[in-house]
């Protein structure tokens, strides 16, 4: 799921004109060594925090049917996660970096969700909304200054981007439906069993001469009343 969110963000930023203008969109950690090797204008979308949204955790399971309407699998509900990205712009001059960052900000705040046409893999199959929260507040993720300190880099202008995405549930195959009954064979001792007779799952039929079921079952006759001592003879 994480790599599918990355691909959706790359496509979203690419549609804003970054790729057409020769700007690279990468998902590397912006460490000091990485910044020294960079040679082209770059927008870096670095994932640094992953947390489950436990409030949205569901229970039970859903059923999956094939084209004939047969139950083929059971699937647990998806679980939702918040992915937090640190978005930065890299160029030779601060003015150019701010221009790139402004372009990225305008693209991200123009939509609250990743468009369905940009989703791939399981995100596209689930058909659920992938939400975006740009430069929002109230996140429990580490502060940007802590991230820069952990990577050994110098603090610079950045955007915080949170993505709420579903992780597909676990699918377990179901047993195939029962289509035939048991086979019953009756033999004498020492004899080989014959082909037997197949029982069908029915409650209102009686067996025919060929082992099949032909019609409604008749109620058996009531048992004869036992004569008691003292009863008058007819």
Automatic annotation (TrEMBL):
Residues 183-234 are annotated as: Disordered. Residues 224-234 have a biased composition (Basic residues). Residues 188-203 have a biased composition (Basic and acidic residues). Residues 4-179 form the Pvc16 N-terminal domain. This is Pvc16 N-terminal domain-containing protein.
């Amino acid at each position: 799921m994480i790599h599918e969110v990355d691909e959706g963000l790359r496509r979203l930023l690419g549609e804003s004109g970054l790729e057409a203008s020769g700007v690279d969109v990468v998902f590397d950690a912006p460490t000091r060594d990485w910044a020294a090797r960079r040679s082209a204008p770059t927008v870096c979308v670095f994932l640094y925090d992953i947390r489950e949204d436990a409030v949205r955790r569901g229970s039970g399971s859903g059923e999956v049917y094939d084209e004939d309407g047969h139950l083929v699998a059971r699937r647990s509900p998806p679980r939702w996660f918040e992915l937090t990205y640190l978005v930065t712009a890299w160029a030779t001059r601060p003015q150019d970096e701010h221009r790139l960052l402004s372009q990225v900000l305008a693209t991200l705040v123009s939509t609250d969700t990743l468009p369905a046409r940009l989703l791939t893999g399981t995100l596209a199959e689930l058909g659920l909304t992938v939400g975006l929260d740009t430069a929002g507040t109230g996140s429990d993720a580490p502060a940007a200054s802590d991230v820069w300190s952990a990577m050994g880099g110098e603090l610079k202008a950045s955007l915080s981007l949170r993505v709420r995405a579903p992780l597909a549930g676990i699918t377990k195959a179901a047993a195939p439906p029962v289509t035939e009954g048991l086979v019953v064979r009756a033999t004498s001792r020492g004899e080989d069993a014959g082909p037997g007779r197949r029982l069908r799952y029915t409650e209102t039929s009686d067996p025919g001469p060929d082992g099949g079921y032909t019609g409604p079952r008749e109620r058996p006759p009531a048992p004869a009343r036992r004569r008691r001592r003292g009863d008058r003879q007819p």
